[in-house]
Each structure stands twice: as C-alpha cells, then as structure tokens.
C-alpha cells in the first residue's frame, strides 16, 4: 500500500502553465513562507506575470500604496506542506547538480511538490467519504459509485492534479469535513439528544460535549470562509446543529446555552473569517470595493457550453435528485443544504463590472479561463448526504407492501443499475473534458460555443494527441525521484500513520459504530480553537516585516506601480473585447 500510494501521487507529468489568476496564489506561498512579507511585486516579477487586475493601490483612495493581491489565502496554510517539502526537493537537486538555480528550482519543483501533496489529499478525500458512507450502512456498490462520481464527475480531480495552487481542492476538503461532521452531529441530536449535549452516559459537560463538537464545526466553517469568502454562509450549519441539539431543553436553559455556545462558536468562526478582510483593510483602506450593479445569468451559468454547470458536470443532477428526496421526506437539514446550494449558485451566476483599482468584479459569469464551473466546486460537498437519501428512496421502493416483494426488489435493482449507468455516462462528459484540458489547456479555457465544446469532448480519443502531450509534459526521472523522496514518502507515511490511528483501513472489515463517540478529544477542540489564533499571529509577523521593508525602501512601491499599473489598466480596457467574443459565440445576455 505504501509503495503504491507513493507511486500514485508522484509528479510524473508537469502541469501546464496556468493563467495569470494563479500568480496571486503562488505569490502567497512564496511571500508567506519564504520572503515572509505581504509585498508581492518581487513574486510577480519573478513569475513573469501578474494576476489579472493586480496593481499598486492608490493612496488617494485610502489604500496603503502596496501591491494588491485580493485572492484569499486561507488555502495557503493547507498547501504549505507540499510547497515547503517541494522547496526541499529543489534544494536537493541543486546540491546534486541535477538542476540549476532559476525558475525551475524556485517555482516549478515546489509546485510539483504541491501537486504530489494535492493528489494525496484527493485520495484521502475519497477514502474519508467512503468510510463515512459505509458507517451509515450504505452498500459497497452504491458507496463506490458515489465516490467515483464525486471525484471524477466534478472538476475536483482536475483541480487537484492540474491546478493545486488554486483554492478549490482545499475548499472542497474543508467543506466535506464540515458537512460530514455536521450531519454526524445532527444525527446524534436526533437519535440521542442528551448525548449530543454531552450530558449523558458519563460524558463530561462543556468542551468535551456539545460545545466541543460545535467549536470544531465553527472552525471548519470559518476556515472555509478564509479559503473562499463566498462560503461564509456555511456558518449556518453550526447554528442549525446547536438549535437541534438543544431543542428538548426548557426555554430559559436552552436560550442560555444557545447564547453562550453561539458567542463561543462565532468567535472561533470570526477568527478565521477575518483573516482576509484584515489584509484587505491594510492594502486597500477597507475590505474591498464591491460597489456596482450586479446582473445575474442563471440559465447561462447552469447550461451554457462555456463552463455551464450541468453541461460540464451532468452527474450533479443525481445529487440534486437526492437532495430533493431529502427535502420531500423532511430529512433533518435537507432544506438548509438546498438553501445554501441555491445561494452559492445565485452568487456565482452574478456579474459585476470591472473598473480600474477595484478589488473584485467580474464582467462575465464564466469563472474565467478555468475548468468547468470552478466557482461552484467548493460548495458541491453539500450534496454528500444526498446519496443517503437516494438509498432511502430505493429502500422505500423495495419495501412497498402494496405490490409483490419480488417485483419491488427487481425495481430497486433496476434503479440502482440506472443510477450507476446514467451517472457513469454523465461522468464520461467531465472526464473527456478533463482529458482535453490535460492534452491542451487552451482547448477548454477558450470561449466554448457548441462546436468548440464538441471538439473538446472528442479530443481525448485521439491517441496521437496523448502521445504529443506526454512528450511535452513528462518530468525527468531525477526530479520525479527527488520529489518522491522528499515530498511523497514522508507525507504518505504521515497520512498512513494518521489513518491507522483513527482506525481507517483496518483489516477486520467491520463497520465502525453508526453514531460518533460521545467524547470529543480535547486535542481536536484545542486545535480547532488555536489554529486561527496562530494564523493571525503569523499574519502579524508578515505585516510587521512588510512595514519594516517599506520603511527601509520607500521607493519600492513607486517603482512597482510604474510597471504594474499600466498593465492593470490595459487588462481592464481589454475586457469589452472579451465580452464581445462571448456574445458572438454564445448570444446576447452574457
């Protein structure tokens, strides 16, 4: 298992050059852990590109007069192990003379280390979902089907393998953990409300009981908001869990508990969620300019050939079906999940004009030159419980009393096969497009009208295209070996040791208990509370270093503005031409 996993996550192929959006996230990694400041002009110069709309903030608008980088950096902390170990691999290659000092050593090899870490995290995500579903007595075939659909019927595998510097894999992992833990807590509150509050069967009150569970949920929800601010509404999952867990208490006691737990969880959530606004305030003199009229393009966001949700990921129809079943059957939390998902779709379908020197804005609903509906990827774990409700729907067919048991069983089997077959064909669309992106990223990142969309779908079935792509992307064995030795081997060892400690992958084949344990480990609660505090502490160090650097070199930002701001203004001026291309290929209203 160890050797297979190391080989699986090793970076055998180099990622294509991503577009300039990723420069902001790469700059976070280098600035946070190598330069240890919040000044990005040197990172952008060394990368040879600037993230779209990056500029030196004008002091006249209340800005600090520093280089902008509005890409959220919550994922940077999760990416650090792969990036830093990858930096160690580049040092090893430099010492042995296998590579020379330059962009390959400073950027490419650390990025390959990050890729190895991201692929290991992807495997871990699949295992975690598998184990969680099996604990709920879901059959092996349906569990395997759902895991494969989740990984390869959505863009998550693409972003893990091809673009690990982007936040989507990391947001998906955090939201998956949040949703599964939330569902555990809701189930516990429904089946054993006293144990959910930590007041029964000898379970201690306070942190090890209900509050400890809620603090972990709050920390996960806050981290999700730090990774992508649009995920901030997921804090409602924490409030929902506390509301259910206390529903059988007398009125006064319930409100006392809700207020005290609400304040504690809100504090933990806010510590994470305030990280990005804290830096934005320093850069821009506020939390960003979000002004401007917003228009929504819901139909295009869902169905356009140009990165439309269901056009690129049709398997999501099954997830919505399961969510609908949960709502109709009044399953606990199903309605809340549907509301949160609808909220994310509404946010992602909105557009706002981009003007010079604003923090955010998007002239199109497409999510940029990206793979599929990337803005929705982090919210897709909201659909994880839907497979349980699909199973309950199938079981309901099987257990109907008004028809022959053999006929009802046959109908249930046919339905399972229809789900597996239809979902498999739906995943074929996403995997074909992912293959096209691997062969040539320009094929799927251009403005895709129906004709270009069909061309992208058929490209992976050209053997010659694969051969040409492999010839361009294969990584020298010396680099593969160094990254495997320094990155893959230690991370796989730690991951397997952690899995063994929590009981994942045992040989007994027995399923763990259905309900979560009554006791919440103190270490887990302490980590949930201290992690955002440490993140703020590190951010303070970066802030002080930045101020010291600006004091020592007062002309640094002026020189950066002379280079970056004209580039930024030219980028904004080019947006109408891109909009005209969208309208020409996809029609008016986009």
UniProtKB/TrEMBL annotation:
Q: Which UniProt keywords apply?
A: Membrane, Transmembrane, Transmembrane helix
* Segments crossing the lipid bilayer: 107-130, 142-161, 214-237, 257-275, 309-328, 417-439, 477-499, 520-544
Top-rank taxon of the source lineage equals Bacteria
Q: What is this protein called?
A: Glycosyltransferase RgtA/B/C/D-like domain-containing protein
Its lineage opens with: Bacteria, Pseudomonadati, Myxococcota, Polyangia, Nannocystales
